[in-house]
Amino acid sequence: xxxxxxxxxxxxxxxxxxxxxxxxxxxxxxxxxxxxxxxxxxxxxxxxxxxxxxxxxxxxxxxxxxxxxxxxxxxxxxxxxxxxxxxxx
Length: 89
Description:
Blueprint: H1 3-42, H2 51-87
Helix pairs in contact: 1-2
């Protein structure tokens, strides 16, 4: 396998990881920002107040984006197996 092929596969893997994790990370970031603004406005500094909404937001986002993430990972995996099989010939 050539170095260019390995770099291409690595780039595809990093892209797949970023695309699959982005929806959950963005949801957690938005909820954290909203709760931080609420805490700053009300001067409630409870550290545990942010965990439950973030967890719920991540689970809901995973349910909504789950089929898309699964399709992305299946496409990446089948493409990877195809590339590996073509190199072996």
